[in-house]
Amino acid sequence: MSTAEAQIRLTAVNKTYGAHAVLEECNLSIQAGEFVVVVGRSGSGKSTLLNLIGGLDRPTAGVVELLGQSLAGLTEDELSRVRCRRLGFVFQFFNLIPTLTVQENVRLPMALNGASKAQGIRRADLLLRELGLDECGSRFPEELSGGEQQRVAIARALSHRPNIVLADEPTGNLDLETAEEVLALLEQTCRRHGATLVMATHSREVLGTADRVFTIRAARIHEEPP
Amino acid sequence: MNGLLARSGLRFYWRRPWQLCLAVSGIALGVAVYVGVDLANDSARRAFQLTSDLVTGSTTHHLMGTGGEIADSVYRTLRMEHGPVRAAPVIEAEVRLGRLPDRVVTLMGVDPLEESGFRGFSGFVPGRGTDLTRLIVEPGAVLAPAPLLEELGLEAGSEFGLLIGGETRTVRAVGTVLETSSADEGPTAPIIADIATAQELLGRTSLSRVDLILDEAEAERVRALGLPNATLVPAEGRNAAFDELARAFRINLTALSLLALLVGVFLIYATMSFAVVQRRGTFGVLRAIGVSRRQLLTGVLGEALVLGTLATTAGILLGQQLAEGLVDLVLRTIGDLYFESSVSAVTPSPTIYWRGFAMGLGMTLLAAATPALDAARSTPYTAMSRAALERSTRLLALRANWLALPAAAVAATLLLVSSRSLVLAFAGLFFVIATGALLVPSATRLLGRLAEPLAERGFGISGSLAARGMAASLSRTGVATAALSVAVATVVGIGLMISSFRISVEEWLTGTLTADIYVNIDGEQFFDDSHRDALSAIPGVRGSSQTRFVPLPTAAGEVGLRALNPGPDGWGLRMTAGGTEAVERLESAEGVLVSEPLAFNRQLQPGDDLILPTASGEQAFPVLGAFRDYSSNGGTVLMPLSVYRSHWADNDINGIGVYLDDETDREIVLEEMRRVFGAGAPVRFRSNEFIRERSMMIFDRTFRITEVLRILAGAVAFLGLASAVMSIELERGRELAVLRALGLRPRQVRALTLAQTGLLGLAAGLFAIPLGIVMAALLIQVINVRSFGWSMDLEIASQPLALGVVLALSAALLAGIYPAVRAVRVGVAGQLREE
Questions:
Q1: DSSP alpha helix (H) spans, B473-575
Q2: Per-residue model confidence (pLDDT) at position B195
Q3: Which of B731, B832, B834 is most worth mutating to test chain A (most A CB atoms within 10 A of its CB)?
Q4: Residue A214 is part of which domain span?
Q5: Which of B468, B745, B835 to mutate to test the interface with A (most CBs of A within 10 A)?
Q6: Per-window interface: A 126-145 vs B, CB < 8 A
Q7: Closest residue by Cα to residue B827 from A108, A156, A12, A54
Q8: Contact by Cβ (8 Å): B503, B797
Q9: Phi, psi torsion values for B658, nearest 5 degrees
Q10: Is residue B506 a contact partner of residue B696, using CB atoms and an 8 Å limit?
Q11: Measured between alpha carbons, how far is B330 from B708 in angstroms, rounded to an integer?
Q12: Which of B385, B468, B828 sits opposite A100 (nearest CB)?
């Protein structure tokens, strides 16, 4: 696999909190369109890895590159722009904006990218239909079930056609049946839209469908054999 | 378990030092304003009481004459015709110290041989070694208060100067006069002289009054003597009007301080309810793991008790400092309104501190009790669910709208049935405020919805999110906006009242001061008709008015009698009862007009009779109408000069108003006028503009205390606004972190935070406008009339309204700066992880 085509590349990345090393000497390269799963025990550093990739946190040492661009020298404004255009997030606790309707939540990233309201509504309706939520557009997040809320979060993560979707324990808050359904939807939708999906999870069920699997142990990242 | 609950509450504030500081300062400032004003009021009340006791002593009656003086012969007649009577003549005047010309002291002439049964030496005593014989026989001998001599650096036996009628008269302190009241309390004792010495110093032959100790039978006998130009007034009656006015002034001031406290209470409520609402999720968890409702309620109330105790103690200490400044202002204001003499500050009663403590703590507990009860009553699920909370808040806001109806009905009933009661009127005002506060949460939601398209157009996605957040987070924004609206409305209401009063006084002065130049004479001298004729003969003078003003003792208190021969521009009256017909009837000498305060205090209406003591005994004058008069709230009677002269046989004139032709050179006329009176005559010439300017200066000084209270209420509002808005924004950390994760730029995050706080401030400012106008209308139309008998027009000036909105907006935007900076500085990952 040519590293020149890597969409995400981490080189000798370290992250420490005080004296505690969460990640050490992490090297990672992910190609466009891949579905990558990161597994590890609670507190192993999965979320930290995703935060570093997403520019939500900065490494103590090493370089994080997205689409060939290092995040190290970017200002907060530039990082925001990268997230806004290139990244989509799916969180464990959904993190939908409670004061916006489902449709508004989905078109929020598009609005941030300057899309017109009409464009936003068209795209949001399309995604919601795709995810089986076409009846929920005018409802508020609090009126939906957990599984529905996570599907809205997936729609939101994909609405602005990002290159990369980062999903941090997207099923951690759902029952087994719903979790399977959401995982399948997330994977299929990302593949359909050509987005790279990096998912941190406890769930072993997803491993079979992933293109690559990484494990974090003792602050170091290891790629599992296929 | 309770220990753990307490620890949880403690840590909540420990992690939010800003919120703790703002909550404590909000409560403390509210308490400080109440305690400060209460202390100042109490000091004033006690000082006046002491002054009154000192001057009147055990006197039961006063024999008083027209014009504030009574002929010496009346006292002699009384002594001769009544037989043995306990009577003491008094002559009293305000004089200035030669070395300290700004210092006014009272010179009191008494008969030392008659004084023993009177103030006599109950209010003050001659110092050790004082030779009373010298006081009687030595010319210029006086007894001076020991502290005064000390202040002047003099000893007993020294000479010092008194400024009387523009001249310095030398007196010798042959002894000291000591106060029997505690040394650090009470007003300064007067300078005492023998009555003959005082008459000589003041250039008078008359007395100010004769003090008497009489039983009812003796009083009847004195009345039966029919002493010429003298009225027997009960000592209580003489001060009754003053006491009533001073009481009204104090009630008004107390009410203003209560209004400031109410602002504090609303802010305390917002602070405490926010602190509880914020932890509803935690409370839900606690309830789920077995914490009982009682334990939860006790925990929250315990927390409020600790916070309230801390803040109230700080407020009392702050109030003590505040009182020192306010005492001076209150006494000066009362001095401007009622009492010429300067009164020194006194030590207030310690019960005020306890009252302030109980008030502050009680209000804090009350403010915490409602949300605490709500949290304790909720099921654990409801307590944990934000969605459930918002749903129930929306429902509560709707119910509050319905509750506003009975609140408004109670307010209207109280205001209608309260008649002359100031306390009930204030209760009505508080219900009006409650009505407004109940409507605010729904109005906030509506405003958020209406503002969204505009905010989106103006600020893009940040504006839209801000407006949406305000409407959707009613559990946070509803109570806060209601509290802040009340706070800002108080500032707006008092501001409108002051500006309305100022405009009314300006208009009144313009209407009343019709002459171009006013001529007055100092001391005990008067003009006569020849002066008027001489002034009218000066080229360029188109006419003149003549005024005779005399204080008249009546059984219901003293009134001022103004007899006027109007100039070419008429009477210059604005009638509040009787209309122009009453003025026409006044010109036809059919009766008198009374000033508005007099009509209000004595409940006089056109057609009633007013009994006044004339030279030929008491006589009833028909009241034709009432006119607006801000010159005194003691009460004024107006009659034509000719009527006065026919009843009082007095041709003196106190003042002449000179009307000039339009083209006349004022300086030339003034030169001519000075020539009429000759050089060195104690005559003052004052222009219309000068009097107007001075009057407005006095007005501004009089209202400085109100202005100070407005500023204090503004400070409380500002702090409360900042506290509430900052707390709301700090709580939204996670939401902002999500938005940042989605790509909202730092600039947009800052804009969103400031737009949200700005919208809250704007909402508070906008809702405060109608509420402030209603408050001002009630303060003007109800409270002021019942306090002072003054009516005025409500003038909705733009400045106080704009000030309210600016205050709210600036406080909200300033409060938004820290959360805006923090939202960008704090790591997104950290914020998300916290949840």
A1: 474-512, 529-536
A2: 86
A3: B832
A4: 3-223
A5: B745
A6: 140, 142-143
A7: A54
A8: yes
A9: -110, 130
A10: yes
A11: 11
A12: B468
Candidate from B387, B748, B833 with C-beta closest to A142: B387
Residues with Cβ within 8 Å of B786's Cβ and at least 6 positions away in sequence, in order, are: B248, B420, B421, B422, B425
Left, alpha or beta for A72 (phi > 0: left; psi -120 to 50: alpha)?
A: alpha
A57 contact B CB<8A:
yes
Which amino acid is residue A185, in one-letter code? Answer: L
| Residue B592 token pair | 């008198």
Is A42 in CB contact (< 8 Å) with chain B? no
Q: How far apart are alpha carbons B55 and B42 in whole angstroms?
A: 20
CATH number, domain with residue A192: 3.40.50.300
pLDDT tens sequence for chain A (226 residues): 444 468 999 999 999 988 889 999 999 999 999 999 999 888 889 988 998 998 888 899 999 999 999 999 888 778 888 888 899 988 888 778 777 789 988 988 888 888 888 999 999 999 999 888 888 888 888 788 888 888 899 899 989 889 999 998 888 777 777 788 888 888 888 998 889 999 998 777 778 888 999 999 999 999 987 6
Name the DSSP class of B117: G
Work out how many domains chain A is built from and give that number.
1
- CA dihedral angle for residue B129, residue B135, residue B139, residue B143, rounded to 10 degrees: 70
pLDDT of residue B601: 82
Query: How crowded is residue A163: how many other Cβ atoms within 10 Å of its Cβ?
Result: 18
Angle at which helices B704-731 and B17-56 cross, to 10° = 160
What residues of chain B lie within 8 A of the CB of A94, using their CB?
none
Nearest Cα neighbor of B756 from B488, B483, B471 is B471
Dihedral sign, Cα of residue B810, residue B813, residue B819, residue B821: negative
Residue B537 CB partners (closer than 8 Å, separation 6+): none
Distances (CA, A) of A178 to A149, A151, A205, B778: 11, 10, 13, 62
Q: Look up residue B220 and give its two tokens.
A: 């009847």
Would an 8 Å CB–CB cutoff place A83 in contact with chain B?
yes
Q: How far is A225 from chain B (nearest CA, A)?
A: 30
Percentage of chain A modeled with pLDDT above 90: 36
Q: Which residue of A has its CA nearest to B472?
A: A99
Euclidean distance between CA atoms A139 and B148, whole angstroms: 81
Q: Which single residue is written with the structure tokens 């003050």?
A: B124
Angstrom distance (rounded) from CA B715 to CA B148: 40
Helix (H) or strand (E) holding A76: helix A76-86
Chain B residues close to A87, C-beta within 8 Å: 743
Chain B nearest-CA distance from A22, in A, is 14
CA distances in angstroms from B253 to A101, B314, B353, B431, listed in the order given: 51, 22, 17, 19
